[in-house]
Amino acid sequence: MNKLLEIIxxxxxxxxxxxxEFCNIESPTDYKEGVxxxxxxxxKKAQSLGFKVEVCEQRVSGNAVCITMxxxxxxxxxxxxxxxxxxxxxxxxxxxxxxxxDDYIYGPGVLDCKxxxxxxxxxxNALKLSGFKDxxxxxxxQSDEETSSxxxxxxxxxxxxxxxxxxKAFINCEGARAGGMVLIRKGVLRYRxxxxxxxxxxxxxxxxxxxxxxxxxxxxxxxxxxxxNGITSNCGIINGGTTENVVxxxxxFNYDFRFMNDEQNAFIKRxxxxxxxxxxxxxxxxxxxxxxxxxxMEENRKNTELYEKIEEIFEKYGMERMGRTLSGGGxxxxxxxxxxxxxxxxxxxxxxxxxxxxxKALISSLxxxxxxxxxxxxxx
Length: 380
Fold this sequence. Notes:
The protein has 2 domains: 266 residues, Aminopeptidase; 108 residues, 2-Layer Sandwich (Alpha-Beta Plaits), CATH 3.30.70. 34% of the residues lie in helices and 23% in strands. It contains 10 helices and 16 strands. A 6-stranded mixed beta sheet has the order 1-2-6-3-7-14, sandwiched between helices. The chain has a 4-stranded antiparallel beta sheet with strand order 4-5-16-15, with no helix packed on it. The chain is elongated and about 80 Å long.
């Protein structure tokens, strides 16, 4: 084990450079060319190490990828995973997209979630150099995680589940949390509401039906859910009207809901239907569309047992226990849990500013994450 950890330290500079190159390839989910280019960089690195590569081709989303080390080893695999897509449009971080100082690396995906992928690849490289051949180690790259796999119609999730089938563990390398490993994650429901009214000149407003006003009533009702340990709701996009002196006949608005369990999922769906059907401004109507859905990661026995095994491994080799926590963000870990695969999340690098143009990751956490992953690979 000491030799393995020493190799990780020796590879640190090489993988810091790789991290920077990887994140300079901007890859927002809807930019397939960029997502695939980022995936190809990882594929090239994996192939140089002699690892097997399988690609799940997609027409709209980027391609998902499975990289396998020790493909001929017997028994159940340990799977690492992370997503190569990011959230901000190309150019949001300037040019080049990435900058580095003594302590941090800044840029799109450095924390969410390319940093975790780099840590996993570093761990696998070190395992190879140490002569480890006892079991299969897989690194599965998701390509449309940030949109709940809408572009692939969940095909990328099914690919991940197929490659992780019967695995000893699915270790998701999303950014590490200060509170510890993530065993519980909220699910996500995203809706678009369309309110239709009647247009007329503003001077004769009583003859019209203001779609924006009706949307406002609905938004006020939907905004009541703000429980960080339960249901949350957020109106993130709203569009309506043409000019100030015309009563608007259309307004659309999009909602993001988060929930802890199936019961809360069903409650949100009932309330959405009720509020959409309720009319306050006479002459208006409302339709709604479910844009995407992601299951919650609820606590279960398999995941808890895996967590305890991992903590025991860390203690055995003189590393601190991580502890356990929950996250309000959705993740592929929830999907893998729903497939019955033992799963833990939040084993990537540490940092701050996820989903902002201030995203950054602590450089020293790269080797810490890689060491944790390598110890799990050997000892689970």
